[in-house]
Amino acid sequence: MKEAHKNRLAESIFHSYVDHALIRRHFHRVLYRADDLPLPGLMLATHGSWWDGMILFHLDQTCFRHDPYVMIDHEGLARFPFFSRLGAFSIDRSSFSDIKKSLQYAKEQLLSGSSVWMFPQGEERHQEERPLHLASGAAHLTRHAESVFLVAFYYSYGHEQQPDVYVRTRRFEPRAGERTGAQAERLTAELTALYDDVRADAIAERIHHYRCITTRREPLPARTERWLRALRP
């Protein structure tokens, strides 16, 4: 298990790159809707795309300002060790002892007042796949957090060449004395419901419920339209 070694300067530089070189280049808009605005604590997010971590990092830098720790697969951190500077720490799901160490590390960060983010599906799964399967560690950590919030992403092609990213957050309320198994079932059901709700928003294009966090400076179709109009028959 590899711990995080956070560095504010590294976060700032990397966010500038993510914002201008990645998100504004590959997406038409990043749209955010807060059923409940996240407070520092445990954030559990769906994982349908490689982009999820980048989008969540971008939201934290622009909206949340939680300065979080992020649990990621040990292979991912081995490939991109720089992520430890952004708050990433590893978990090896093939090793029971490593899982215990990672969960203990996450618990310590929560008890110290920091935020911890994780993708409880454990790996990228297609955003239309149902039912969701969540790791048991997520329900365990809810018992040690001041607040718990769910995050769902949905990637949708609309009327532009690049897709929109819909992001929606909602509070999850742990229940004192609830069995871990029952809480895990309720957590799965509520995250699934949030996932389905953000998908319904995307299909219906209910963008008036959302705040536009980031947009392309100039949508490509507008540029293409000018080129086509300039062509002579």
Topology readout:
Elements: H1 8-26, E1 29-34, E2 42-45, H2 52-64, E3 69-73, H3 74-79, E4 88-91, H4 96-111, E5 116-118, H5 136-142, E6 148-156, E7 164-172, H6 180-204, E8 211-215, H7 220-230
Parallel strand pairs: 1-7, 2-5, 2-6, 3-4, 3-5
Antiparallel strand pairs: 1-8, 6-7
Summarize the structure.
With about 230 residues, the chain is an alpha/beta fold. The protein has helices at about 10-25, 50-65, 75-80, 95-110, 135-140, 180-205, 220-230; strands spanning about 30-35, 40-45, 70-75, 90, 115-120, 150-155, 165-170, 210-215.
H/I helix tally = 7
Return the structural class: alpha/beta
Helix-strand sequence: HEEHEHEHEHEEHEH
The end-to-end span amounts to 64 Å
For the biggest β-sheet, the strand order reads 4-3-5-2-6-7-1-8
Tell me the radius of gyration: 19 Å
Nearest-integer average pLDDT: 93
Beta-strand level of the residues, as a percent range?
15-25%
Q: What's the helical proportion of residues? A: 40-55%
Sheet of most strands: 8 strands, mixed
Topology, number of strands: 8
